[in-house]
Amino acid sequence: MVIGILTLELRLPGNGSLKGKRGILKPLMARLRRDFNVSVSEVDAQDVWQRAVLGVACVSPSADYAHGLLTEVAETVESWRMDLEVIDYEIELIH
Fold it and tell me: pTM score > 0.90 for this model?
């Protein structure tokens, strides 16, 4: 069994409030859960309006599958929302 962890660092350039940030992140996290069957949570920068750090996790019998899934999540996020940018992402696999 492999646990895959993706840390996504996001920039929200047009955002001006925590309410606006929540309005961007909630639908994004719900869509990630639905489309990729992963767990998602905001894990850092909760009080910063124009930045977000999301943690995405999956469990898989295969390291290759987990890595591929999380890479696809990271590459798909920016294409879904034009009001955010993926600054950086990191994938960690725990065997």
Answer: no
